[in-house]
Amino acid sequence: MILLAAAGHSNADIARRLRCQAHVVGKWRQRFSQSGLSALADRVRSGRPVTMTERETKRVVMAACRQPRKGLSRWSVRTLAQHLDLPPARVQRILQAHDLHPHRLRTFTFSSTLLFLLRDALSALDIPAAKFVSGVETFKELVFVSIAAW
Asked: Which 8-state DSSP code applies to residue 140?
């Protein structure tokens, strides 16, 4: 912003280029003209500062990168926060800071209904008892079952 102003561009032109409002450009130009480079530094803000420890950050990142607890197909901010006993807003900030999206991971869980259906289907196909289901994946309405020997 300041470099464009020094090159002779108008506030409206700078605002258009940087996709912001012209009054914002004017505010920063005025601050810079009054106080120089020190005016561009972040100012002290009101409110309580965020107190996130490195240990909490590591816990959230490690948990988000692992499989969710039993019964869940993926982590959400709420379930991860509950699992780690942390406030959901803090978990959200950590996930955003590390560009993590655990809710987008593609995993699956075995529902008890699906397992009962598979057991019945396998017994109807006379599959020997020495075989077992090693994996199930769903794709739209189709169910793919991997059968492997002991």
From this structure: T
Per-residue tens of pLDDT for the chain, all 150 residues:
889 999 999 999 999 999 999 999 999 999 999 988 888 887 787 888 777 788 898 999 888 888 887 777 788 899 999 999 999 999 999 998 888 887 776 544 445 555 556 666 666 666 554 455 545 444 444 444 554 543
Which two tokens mark 95?
């996930």
Instruction: Give the separation between CA 123 and CA 119, rounded to whole angstroms.
Output: 6
Hey, how many other C-beta atoms are within 10 angstroms of the C-beta on 91?
Answer: 26
> Domains of the chain: which residue ranges?
2-40, 54-104, 112-149
3-state secondary structure 93-136: HHHHHCCCCHHHCCCCCCCHHHHHHHHHHHHHCCCCCCEEEEEE
SS3 per-residue string spanning 6-32: HCCCCHHHHHHHHCCCHHHHHHHHHHH
